[in-house]
Specification:
The complex is a heterodimer of chains A (252) and B (200).
Chain A (H helix, E strand, L loop, with lengths): L12 E4 L4 E3 L4 E7 L12 E4 L2 E2 L5 E5 L2 E6 L11 E6 L5 E10 L32 E3 L2 E4 L2 E4 L3 E3 L3 H9 L43 H13 L7 H19 L1
Parallel strand pairs in A: 2-9
Antiparallel strand pairs in A: 1-3, 3-7, 4-5, 4-8, 6-7, 8-9, 10-13, 11-12
Chain B lengths: L17 H32 L30 H29 L4 H27 L26 H27 L8
Classes of the chains: A alpha+beta (252), B mainly alpha (200).
């Protein structure tokens, strides 16, 4: 008995490019071409939708009798991790072909190596400036000696995640931080809300927590450069314990 | 029970063996439960693929899945034993398809653990329901496969599947999830005709 196969018959037309990866703010030129062996088929009347929304007709034009072109500018970031659904439709609305767009963030820089290895103690790395907010950083350690090299796991973090989770979780009744006007902060904290206030933890269990050297540095920076009263490692530990409990509850 | 070939409708003049009756009820209840799960799976699936999946009126081309299609319109007119055989065969073919969809979704939606778990559960549940239907058929003296027929081969996965476009993969997964729902629902309906005293 012959193998039975999963097969697809979405082959009336094809979109090019297929499943491109693009930067936020970039442009896309795409085409929907009807296969030559489709009897009576023409690109006349075809139209595009993106994530289910019909695109304005002025964004597309006929390249030839069998191809409809599309020009999109200043793309927004993808709405879902599986990609935005760009679909080519026949005049009657039926789906002829699709392509998924992956529109993501720009890589803000190249790899940087640490410049301050001893500022906060032996085997440490101090990053005193040029940290960007709302940006995921990947941090890892590479060690080399005469016998060989080793590389640590990659730690991914956003320096603003701590403040965001605190506020989103509502765990402490805490006013958000704002920069001191008398310090030259390398960047500004764009958190709305009233200034001042006291962070009152709502209870929780202390947590053993992961290595926290970078967070300690960040907390130190916050105390120096922003108005955040009552920030402490104890508060952070309580937040971590609460997050772990919440995560377990969600996964049950 | 009327034991003529192909005729399995419950006959009030024959009392089912208690364990067989219990097994039929249990299998029917399982099918009913899985019908609800299949609806939830479909909702979860379309949500993760993004619009237009899940929008009212979304109607991608019906894809051809060699080896498995939905219940035919003529299904309801078949003898009950034949319907249950077809149900069991479809349920036996679905796990491999659901697994393939799960693997692809693990690439497309790696941060959708609930969807991935639901697909994994659906494969396991389809397998369990298919086995239960076959057990019922065997207990009733109506084998899952008639004499002379070869075992149905589970649909094999095309090696080109992983290279298929993302949109096509999304549509294919939608189709498989839809088939899963259609067949568990069909199985529930067919089994309801076997439940002594009717379905509560």
């Amino acid at each position: 008995m012959p193998d039975r196969c999963l097969s697809l018959t979405l082959d009336t037309a094809v979109i090019s490019p297929q499943d491109p990866t693009l930067l936020i703010g970039s442009s896309l030129q795409a085409t929907c071409s009807i296969h030559g062996d489709t009897p009576g088929a023409t690109a006349e009347g075809l139209y595009w939708t993106l994530n289910g929304r019909r695109l304005p007709s002025e964004l597309s034009h006929l390249l030839n009798t069998s191809t409809l072109a599309l020009a999109l500018a200043n793309l927004n970031g993808s709405r879902q991790q599986s990609g935005d659904n760009l679909v080519c439709h026949a005049r009657d609305g039926s789906i002829l072909a699709g392509s998924c767009l992956y529109v993501g963030r720009k890589w803000y820089g190249q790899d940087n190596t640490c410049e301050e290895y001893h500022t906060v103690g032996p085997h440490s790395c101090h990053i005193p400036k040029d940290l960007a907010l709302f940006t995921p950083y990947e941090i890892w350690v590479e060690a080399t000696n005469r016998l060989g090299s080793a590389r640590s796991d990659v730690l991914t973090l956003d320096v603003l995640d701590v403040g965001l989770v605190w506020e989103a979780a509502g765990l402490p009744a805490c006013a958000p931080c704002r920069p001191r006007s008398d310090t030259a902060a390398p960047f500004s904290l764009e958190r709305p809300g009233p200034g001042g206030g006291v962070c009152e933890p709502r209870g929780g269990e202390p947590s053993s927590g992961p290595v926290r050297r970078e967070l300690k540095q960040f907390l130190g920076w916050l105390k120096k450069h922003a108005y955040c009263s009552n920030l402490s490692f104890r508060l952070y530990d309580q937040w971590r314990a609460w997050m772990q409990k919440s995560h377990k509850t969600r996964n049950q | 029970m009327n034991r003529r070939e192909g005729s399995l409708e419950a006959d009030s003049s024959i009392s089912f063996l208690p364990h067989l009756e219990a097994k039929i009820r249990q299998t029917h209840n399982l099918a009913r439960l899985l019908t609800k799960y299949a609806e939830q799976l479909l909702e979860e699936y379309v949500q993760q693929q993004g619009d237009p999946f899940g929008l009212p009126g979304f109607s991608p081309p019906r894809l051809s899945l060699a080896g498995l299609s939905g219940p035919a319109p003529s299904h309801a007119g078949l003898p009950l034993s034949e319907r249950l055989r077809l149900d069991a065969a479809a349920l036996g073919a679905l796990p491999a398809l659901l697994d393939a969809v799960r693997r692809r979704q693990a690439e497309l939606n790696p941060r959708a653990p609930r969807l991935l778990r639901s697909l994994e559960d659906a494969a396991r549940q389809a397998r369990a329901l298919g086995a239960a239907v076959e057990t019922v058929l065997a207990a009733l003296g109506a084998a899952a496969r008639g004499p002379g027929s070869e075992p149905a081969a589970a649909p094999a996965l095309s090696t080109a599947n992983s290279a298929a476009s993302v949109f096509s993969a999304k549509v294919l997964g939608l189709h498989v999830c839809g088939l899963y729902g259609e067949w568990v629902s069909r199985t529930e309906g067919d089994l309801s005709q076997l439940v002594p005293g009717g379905v509560s």
